[in-house]
Design brief:
This protein is mainly beta. The protein is built from four helices and 33 strands. Among the domains are: 1-50 and 397-510, Lipocalin, CATH 2.40.128.630; 286-365, Recoverin, domain 1 (Orthogonal Bundle), CATH 1.10.238.
Length: 510
């Protein structure tokens, strides 16, 4: 009997693997895992990650997250100017196939982004891939193309990043667009729903008041059915499924929304920082002044126009190094235009026209971001504008610019630039703690939760493992030595991290 019990226990990880991975809603088959939740039930990856490196595979650049089937990992990338989809073996990390997308002109995109940013969606036997430069591609898990659909590239400020999702037999893609509809001042933005087996259009829903956005939708199930929740510029909207009809919206968000909506305790949550990335309604000007005065070459604690050299620009994200694509106000490449822009910037801030910026002058005149940072909790069931009727609470501090917060056990965890982690009571919207992780800089990767721990990764490559709960407790940290811009992925025993040049697997069970 004792032998039999030990035998069953030895099989438990394998049995759990098949039961969870075989059930698609409970596997990491899309951006941020099951329905974009950032959480996989039963997952137990290692805590001291550097001691459990299962493999490390060199891959071409891209910003899509790993999406998993039972045996494979799927990614997109751009390789020698061609958009490609890759499949890797989960056990070994070996690239088992690579498929090129049709050759097309590459869309315009921000230096900090990539034309291979949307994350694939995986179902039982198909893989769905979206490239803003081309459109949609459908493969089987062995890399055979099943169908493809060219889609005109929407006009976007920074390039396309929204990822496809699936509801029953429909593949759904949000195509928000800065271009106007013909003979109209309203936009071409829309939701596109396709038959996932054929690629044929099932329905389209216009989003005429939306402009370019970078969020991926979430599906909220309820007693009456389900709705598609989309965060876009200025508002979060709910659409009926399967019809696609708009039901409700909540306003108050900034122009640029990136995070996914998420759900917990029956509520819908949406978040966005100020335009420009500021996480608080009242922002501390000291880091911005510190970034500006670092160009003070004569060390008199004033800034002259002649000292605005090199990578100088007005900082939006002072935690980043000057020269980083997201650091500050973009300046023209042409030297004459650049000079005129810097002249205008200097004279606008130099209110008393004495030829200097002083700290007092800078702090009293600085305006950091536009709009307000916002995290809201929304009750389902409303119609029309429900901002005043269905918002349970809102929070205006510690709101991330890029990462999506994660809900776990009635708490919301969110990390913003500068490495500040906040825990929020999801019932009340009150901050339980707000602490620095150590290691500054940008955070683009969304946190994920496994086995009672948060896994976080900074752009600089600092991986932090933090215990969930009401108290801040860092359990482990490791510097990966490579930049990380992509949200982690999980299976039952493995943490997958895509860095600038590699895909890493940290596995507890070998």
């Amino acid at each position: 009997m004792k032998f039999f019990i030990h035998f069953l226990l030895s099989l438990l990880p394998m049995l759990c693997h098949h039961s969870v991975q075989g059930n698609r809603p409970y596997s990491w088959n899309q951006l941020r895992g099951p329905n974009g939740s950032g959480f996989l039930k039963g997952s137990r990856p290692p805590i001291q990650v550097e001691k459990h490196i299962a493999w490390k595979t060199a891959i071409p650049p891209g910003l899509s997250s790993p999406a998993l089937s039972e045996k494979k990992i799927f990614l997109t990338a751009i390789d020698k100017g061609r958009l490609v989809t890759l499949a890797l073996d989960q056990k070994t990390g070996k690239i088992v196939w690579s498929q090129k997308a049709p050759e097309v002109p590459i869309e315009k995109f921000h230096k900090a982004s990539s034309p291979a940013t949307p994350t694939p969606y995986v179902d039982e036997n198909k893989l769905f891939v979206y490239f803003g430069s081309y459109g949609l591609l459908c493969y089987d898990h062995e890399g055979k193309e099943l169908w493809k659909k060219a889609i005109p590239t929407p006009k976007s400020l920074y390039g396309m990043s929204t990822s496809p999702v699936v509801y029953k037999d429909k593949l759904i893609l949000v195509l928000d667009n800065d271009a106007n509809a013909p003979k109209s001042k309203l936009s071409k933005s829309k939701i596109l729903a396709l038959n996932k087996n054929t690629g044929e259009t099932a329905w389209e829903t216009p989003r005429p008041f939306q402009r370019s956005g970078w969020s991926t939708p979430m599906i909220k199930k309820h007693k009456g059915g389900a709705e598609l929740v989309i965060l876009g510029n200025g508002r979060v909207c709910g659409y009926d499924l399967p019809t696609g009809e708009e039901k409700w919206h909540v306003t108050g968000f900034s122009r640029e929304t990136i995070a996914m909506p998420f759900t917990g305790n029956g509520l819908i949550f949406g978040s966005a920082s100020k335009l420009g990335g500021a996480s608080d309604a009242q922002t501390d000007p000291q880091p911005f002044w510190k970034a500006v005065i670092s160009f003070d070459s004569n060390h008199d604690n004033k800034l002259e126009r002649k000292e605005m050299t090199g990578h100088f620009t007005f900082p939006f994200r002072p935690e980043l190094p000057p020269g980083h694509p997201g650091y500050g106000m973009p300046l023209p490449k042409d030297n004459n235009q650049r000079k005129r822009r810097l002249d205008g910037m200097f004279h606008w801030m130099d209110k008393n026209k004495d030829g200097f910026w002083t700290k007092k002058e800078f702090v009293s005149n600085i305006s950091i971001g536009h709009g307000k940072p916002l995290l809201v909790a929304i009750r389902s069931g409303g119609k029309g504008n429900v901002t005043d009727t269905h918002v349970e609470w809102e929070l205006n501090r510690g709101i991330p610019e890029i990462p999506t917060p994660v809900f776990f056990e009635n708490r919301i965890y969110m990390v913003c630039n500068g490495g500040v982690l906040a825990s929020v009571d999801a019932s009340k919207g009150t901050i339980l703690y707000r602490e620095r992780l150590g290691g500054f800089g940008q955070y683009s990767a969304s946190p994920v939760v496994a086995n009672g721990y948060l896994y976080l990764a900074s752009e600089a490559g600092l991986v932090s493992v933090v215990k969930t709960g009401d108290k801040f407790e860092i359990t482990h940290q490791h510097d990966l030595g490579e930049s990380i811009n992509v949200s982690p992925s999980l299976d039952l025993s493995t943490l997958y991290l895509r860095s600038e040049k590699h895909l890493w697997a940290f596995r507890k069970y070998k």
